[in-house]
Amino acid sequence: MSVFDSLVGQARAVETLTRAVQDAALDSPGAAMTHAWLFTGPPGSGRSVAAAAFAAALVCSQGGCGHCPDCHTALLGSHSDVDHVTTEAMTISVDRARSLVLEAATAPSVARWRVIVLEDADRLTEAANNALLKSLEEPTPHTVWLLCAPSMEDVLPTIRSRCRHVILTTPTTVDVARHLVERDGVDEAMASFAARASMGHIGRARGLARDEQARITRAATLSLPVNVASLGSALLSARELVDAATERGAERTKSVDETERSQLARGMGVENPERPPKWARPDFKRLKDGQDKRRKRATIDELDRDLQDLLSFYRDVLVVQVGGNVTLVNAELIGSIEKVAVRCPPEITMRAMEAILEAREKIAAYVTPLLAVEELTLALRAS
Ligand SMILES: [Zn+2]
Hints:
single chain; 383 residues; alpha/beta; Rossmann fold; Zinc Finger, Delta Prime, domain 3; 2 domains; five-stranded parallel beta sheet; 7% strand; binds zinc ion
C-alpha cells in the first residue's frame, strides 16, 4: 500500500514523485530536494490528491506507506508539518500569502520537511504572487511548496519558472471505472456508466455512482437538446437550468456558511448570529460578502458542469451523424441523440458545440449566467 494508490491513471507522475521522495530520503535536508513544485491537470484529474499524497510521502518515515500516523494525519490535513491551503473564495489575498510565507519559514516539528500544499494557486492575486515569490526564490532548506493549478498558463511565469512541473492527465474511463469498483465498492455496471458520463473526472464519477440525485439532475440537463424547439421552451429551459444550478450552489455552501456565522458569533460574544447587534454588523457584513462570492462561484461551477454534460451530448450527436466508430459518452440516451442527429446536418451540431463553449467562457468571465444561458439555448434551437 502506498499514499499514491489514490491517484488514478497517473503512472508517470507517480514515478516522478516516488523518485523524488526516495532522493529526498537519501540526502541531507535541502541537498537535492526541489523546493517548489507545480501540479497541473484538468479538473478532476486529481492534482490536489497528488499534492496531498506527495506531502504525506515526504513526512512519512517510510516514504508514504499509507498507513502510519504521519501518512494518515497528512492526508487528513492535521499533520503539524503539512499545511494544506484550500480556498472557496475567488482569490487568495496578499495577507494570506504573507502568513503562509511566515509559516513556511518555521522549522518542521517532527518530520524532515515542512510542506505547504497550496490548492488553487491560480487564484493568487498579483500582490499575493509577489509575496510568495521571494519564498520560492530563496526557500529555507526544510521547506517544500506544492502549488496546484489547472494549467501552466494559470500561474504567473515568475512563479512557474521556479517550480518543478508535475503534469496530471485525464484518466481513461477504464481506469476510473476500475478505481470505483476496487476502492469504492461500486458495482461494475454503475462504475462503467459513471466513468463514461464523467469523462474521466474522478470526483464527478464518484458523485454520479453514489448519488441518485446527481444522476437525476444530469438526466434533466441532457433532456434540454430535445426540448428547445420553440422560443418559449428555449427561454424556459435556460431559466430552469440556471435556477437548478443556483439551488445546488447554495446547497453546497450552506453548511460552511452556517458554521462560519456561528463561529464569528461565538468569537464576538454575539448571541444571535441572524440578528447581530449594531456594533457587530460590519464584521457580519464582511463575512456575508465573502460567502455571497463563494456561493456565486459554486453556482458557476455547477453550471459549468451542466454545460460540459451538454457538450458531451452534442459530441455524441456528431458521432452518430458522421458515423464514427467511437463509444458514446451518453450511450443510454441513444434515443434522444438520434432524434437530434436527424434534425440537422453535422455543421449545425458543431455550431451548437461552439455556442456551448462560448457560454462556458462567458460564465467563467462573470457574465450574468441567465443571459449567457439564454443566448445559448436560443442558439441551440437551430440544431
Ligand atoms: Zn507512512
